[in-house]
Amino acid sequence: xxxxxxxxxxxxxxxxxxxxxxxxxxxxxxxxxxxxxxxxxxxxxxxxxxxxxxxxxxxxxxxxxxxxxxxxxxxxxxxxxxxxxxxxxxxxxxxxxxxxxxxxxxxxxxxxxxxxxxxxxxxxxxxxxxxxxxxxxxxxxx
Length: 142
Fold this sequence. Notes:
With 142 residues, this protein is mainly alpha-helical. It has helices at 27-45, 50-74, 80-112, 115-129, 138-141. Helices cover 68% and strands 0% of the residues. The longest helix has 33 residues, at 80-112. The chain starts with 26 loop residues before the first helix and ends with a helix.
């Protein structure tokens, strides 16, 4: 009986098949990216929790992204792209939160100091002390 032919490499040598072992860990990079994405979700889906959940996720994405990028630079881990994505998303979301807080404070102070708002407060207070009827004169507030 004859034997089946073997795979031959160049010059009649057997081919050398090598398998790659497990890759370097990517856990920190994946965590950074997921937290960076999750920092945006509360603002879109859960408006009142955005001020609580989003900053925490953004800060954690920045921390995990920085640690993962340092590990990638040392050659200890893979996932540099995911780490950068998480870091960038965390920074963008944190910047948007800070801008939002500043705008809320500016608008709140300007409304509080406006003449129409103060007049409405005075009329509401007067109405609550009298007979409970409140009528705001919009034309005189301008």
